Amino acid sequence: MKPVREGSPWRGLWAVVAKEMADHLTSVRMGILEAIVLLTAAVTLYMALQNLPSGTSEFLFLRLFTTSQDPLPAFVGFLGFLVPLIAIALGFDSINGEFNRRTLSRVLAQPIYRDALLLGKFLAGLFTLALVLTAIWLMIIGLGIFRLGVPPTGEEVARGLLFLLATIAYGGIWLGLAMVFSVRFRQPATAALAAISVWLFFTVFWGMLVGLIAQGLAKGVFNQIQLELFLARLSPNTLYAEAILAFLNPAVRAFGPLVPLQLIQLQWAVPTPLPLSQSLLLVWPQLTGLIAGTIVLFAIGYVLFQRQEIRA
Amino acid sequence: MSEIVIETQNLTKRYGEIVAVDNLNLKIRAGEVFGILGPNGSGKTTTILMLLGLTEPTAGSARVLGFDPMRQPLEVKSRVGYLPDQVGFYDDLTARENLAYTAKLNGLSRPVAQRRIADALERMGLADVADRRVGTFSRGMRQRLGVAEILLKHPQVIILDEPTLGLDPEAAREFLQIIRAFKEEKITVLLSSHLLHQVQAVCDRVGLFSHGKMVLEGTVPELARQVLGGAYRVHVRAVGPDLTQALHKVPGAVSAQKLDSDLYTVEAQEDIRAEVARAVVQAGASLLSLSLEEPSLDEVYQRYFQGVMAV
Ligand SMILES: Nc1ncnc2c1ncn2[C@@H]1O[C@H](COP(=O)(O)OP(=O)(O)OP(=O)(O)O)[C@@H](O)[C@H]1O
Ligand SMILES: [Mg+2]
Questions:
Q1: In what side-by-side order are the strands of the sheet with B286-293?
Q2: Which ligand lies nearest to the CA atom of residue B160 in the structure?
Q3: Peptide bond into A3 cis (omega under 30)
Q4: How close is the Cα of B257 to the center of ligand 2, in Å?
Q5: CA within 13 Å, CB half, A74
Q6: How does pLDDT run across A234-288, given as a tens digit for each residue?
Q7: Interface test with B, best of A110, A113, A115, A307 (most B CBs within 10 A)
Q8: 3-class secondary structure, B70
Q9: Mean per-residue pLDDT, A97-104
């Protein structure tokens, strides 16, 4: 079968990461997306500060992310589509772009394995995403401190960081998907369209389908709810929504069927907040689900890329 | 005899039904300039990709500088410079930045890389445009940048796939100069091309590919002898008695033909101008001119494929 390869598959990895990150950070495409995220953050933060309940001081900083003013959703509501958008924008032309510029064979003729190129591009995308999100996160917290006049508590910081982490993992899934399509399709436009279609499918249609399928297959009401919950969680959107709900709303102790991201709202009063460790335990499966999904998608892209003929 | 640098044994590549490379046995010695030619789709690029470990052979094996390209591609690729048939660069980066990326991928330290990049750009005449975006480069400049990238690695072997494709005659001529310079530096060169006179001008040996097989191999005179019989032609202009018989008897002559009242052509295995001159004078004719036409690869190529078609 396949011969044993010699030498490290990761040779050249950091060279690729550095080059790709520099590309992302200086590209017009990312500039536009950063501007949108910044605008969203500024507007939703302003709304949140206007609408913070007076008198409560519990979890104020978490409310900055989740407080909304009709008709606009809160910051987390926007993240539900901004993160996939950025992730897809970072990945949809990563391999086919090299191919079309005819740089692929030249780069792979250097002493590196394809592994390093693919992982390097993936990591560069993920780091860029993480960088943007972290910057926004810091900005919101920072402005929050400035306007509220109090520092966040340790638990708020911890919950906020976990929320950030879950968001990055959620982006990882879409980045992985976009990269799979960038290997599979020669045309970047096709790859972008395919990735956006998948996102639309999960965002718009999956919820409806889940209801229909569960109705058709289930025996009994209880069974139907169980099945619905299970099916809904096949969507990364559900996993992400549940994860950030648990982190940003300490009152959540269990999940009902389908929480649309846009409707996440922290109750004004949190009667018996769950300790952080319990919240973490509650969404551990969701978090691992997001990360596992990312790894699976990367593996699919890896297998496709290894088999691909690199010449035009 | 010097050592073998590139060697393949029954190297085969199939794409489904299509056999792109068919049991290829190739040996290239150190310091040699070897040209591979053949019609479109005869397997030249596929062979090159297999030598670099960029495509997996279906069967057979290859060795480059003693390394197996499938098992030890990093060893091979760090010693071999490759110019693909369609070379592309990152248009948004400058020439220098493009090369800096390659240098990094090759694990060169920054000071070494900087020095080598400057040298390579200088040598390829790109020093003036080093900090210009490659997007503004012409085809010829890109091609030279491709060679600069190869130089950066200080390679022992250089593989060029149709390097002069799309270059104007002057640029192509410069390119041949560059290849000759590689030869002076004792670098082994493997190049594929369709431009036969160019191949003839720089290559020590050539291999003719057809349907994935190397059907002919050797120096140009060797091939000419195999395919054309007589490889050299002596053109004689002389007035006097008919010389056809006399020229035929010249030692070394394969055939002699009268083309015009005073024009004859003698085909021979080697340069027999002296013998021909003597024969003309002995036959009592006056010699007006004598010229030698060396065998041309063009002719070999044409004649070979005509022969194949006829069969
Ligand atoms: N990815 C592929 N899938 C199927 N067939 C392929 C593939 N790549 C190459 N081939 C076939 O392999 C054969 C050899 O192709 P190759 O590119 O090696 O020829 P070549 O001698 O370099 O031709 P050219 O002079 O046009 O560059 C051709 O018949 C081609 O159609
Ligand atoms: Mg070719």
A1: B253-260, B263-268, B232-239, B286-293
A2: 2
A3: no
A4: 40
A5: 24
A6: 999 989 988 888 888 887 777 765 555 545 555 544 567 788 888 888 889 999 9
A7: A110
A8: coil
A9: 94
> A312 touching B, CB under 8 A?
yes
- pLDDT by residue (tens digit) across A124-148? 999 999 999 999 999 999 999 998 8
Say how many CA atoms lie within 13 Å of A94 toward its Cβ: 33
Instruction: Please say whether the beta carbons of B240 and B202 come within 8 A.
Output: no
CB atoms within 10 A of CB A312: 14
ipTM over the 0.85 cut-off: yes
Contact of B94 with B133, CB cutoff 8 Å: yes
Count CB pairs under 8 A between chains A and B.
Answer: 87
Instruction: Looking at the CA of residue B45, tell me the nearest atom of ligand 1.
Output: 22
A131's CB contacts (< 8 A; 6+ apart) are A25
Collect all residues of chain B within an 8 Å Cβ-Cβ radius of residue A113.
Answer: 73-74
Could you give the count of Cα atoms lying within 13 Å of A176 in the half-sphere of its Cβ? 21
Around Cβ B247, how many Cβ atoms within 10 Å?
25
Report the DSSP pairing between strands B188-192 and B157-161. Answer: parallel
**Residue B15 CB neighbour total at 10 angstroms:** 11
CB A7 within 8 A of CB A29: no
Structure confidence by residue, pLDDT tens digits, A157-166 = 999 999 999 9
- Please give the Cα distance from A242 to A249 (Å, whole number): 10
Residues contacting ligand 1 via CB (< 6 Å):
A 309; B 15, 18, 20, 38, 40-46
Distance CA A305, CA B12 (A): 22
CB-CB neighbors (< 8 A) of B105 in chain A: 12, 15-16, 107, 110-112
Distance from chain centroid for Cα B20:
20
Residues sharing a CB contact under 8 Å with residue A81, sequence separation 6 or more, in sequence order: A199, A203
The residue type found at A27 is S
Subunit contact A106:B71, Cβ cutoff 8 A: no
Domain boundaries along the sequence of chain A: 13-307
Distance between B49 CA and the closest CA of chain A, angstroms = 9
Nearest Cα residue to atom 6 of ligand 1: B15
Q: Which residues contact B105 (CB under 8 A, 6 or more apart)?
A: A12, A15, A16, A107, A110, A111, A112
Residues 6+ apart with CB under 8 A from A296: A176
Q: Is the pLDDT of residue A43 over 60?
A: yes
Asked if A61 and A141 touch (Cβ cutoff 8 Å), the reply is yes
Query: What is the distance between the alpha carbons of residues B51 and B69, in angstroms, rounded to a whole number?
Result: 6
